[in-house]
Amino acid sequence: MLKTRYHKLRLQFSLWRCRTWNSWTKWLEAKGRWLVANRRWLFGAYMLLVLLVGILLMSRFQARLREIASGEGNSSFIYNQGSDTNPHASDNATSHADTLWEERRFLVGPEPRPSIDNADLEPQQSSESVVNIEPLAINTIPKEDGPTELVAVQSPVLEELYLPLVDAPVQNGYSLSAKWATLGDWRPHLAVDLAAQSGAAVQAAASGVVSKIVTNDPYWGTIVVIDHGGGWSTSYSNIDKPAVKAGERVAACQLIGQVSENPPLELLDPLHLHFILLQNGQPIDPSSKWR
């Protein structure tokens, strides 16, 4: 379950990254010429803005210096509190200390008066002020009566796959970001394209049951999907005249159809078979499972 969610989040991030890159590429293509043609004007405007900001900062700094020189500013900026060079330092320090003391009395209350018996009462007060914290119980979960049996549930694992096209080289591999020739932009390619000749026989990559056959899909043509159990399935796009039917059980390397032409979304690529390996409905890279 976590692995499936990880693949899903990974796919969503890849889609967002490709869309962002495509939008930025289109924006740069549209605005690039204007930026190049007006680069001198933009540089001049930038330098003028920097100059105005510098003049503003310098004017404020000079005004502050004049205020300090005339004595209207805060005296603590020039003199250290309590120094002999500031004639009002002692008065300011005294008034400030009084203010702090009044605020403390208002918030905390009057300072407790010392008592003669404080020395005798100090151990007793310290012992009474200690809060006894009981240790937390570690085993607070009630135990069930009788022994508990653990049952291991094993799910079928698809160990290996046969090549759907015998001795076919990989034309386009599994990638989270690839340039599509037909669409002309960058997006995930969550499949493997196996180079093929027209009329090449397509075989099942593993044994299973034909779960679905889609004909005349506007994007991928005719699609054959085989369920291998345990959440594993394989998809074969642009199949011409499927040799199997939905619900039919097929063996590994059994003929399921032929390759005649590319799917519409990959029409500009050389002729190939669009193969997808899915686990719990999420496409994964099949390169580690080829037999």
Structure described in brief:
The protein is 34% helix and 22% strand. The protein has 291 residues and is an alpha+beta fold. The strands form three sheets. Strands 1, 4, 6, 7, 8, 10, 12 and 13 form an eight-stranded antiparallel β-sheet that branches.
**Mean pLDDT score, rounded?**
75
Helical percent range?
Answer: 25-40%
Beta content comes to 15-25%
Examine the coordinates and then state which fold CATH places here, giving the name of the CATH topology of the domain at 170-289: Glucose Permease (Domain IIA)
Give a description of the structure:
The chain has 291 residues and is α+β, with helices and mostly antiparallel strands. The protein has a domain at 170-289: Glucose Permease (Domain IIA), CATH 2.70.70. It has helices at residues 2-37, 39-70, 89-108, 118-129, and strands spanning 170-172, 175-179, 186-189, 192-195, 201-203, 208-217, 221-229, 232-237, 239-240, 249-250, 255-259, 272-279, 282-284. Mean pLDDT is 75; it is low at 73-94 and 114-155.
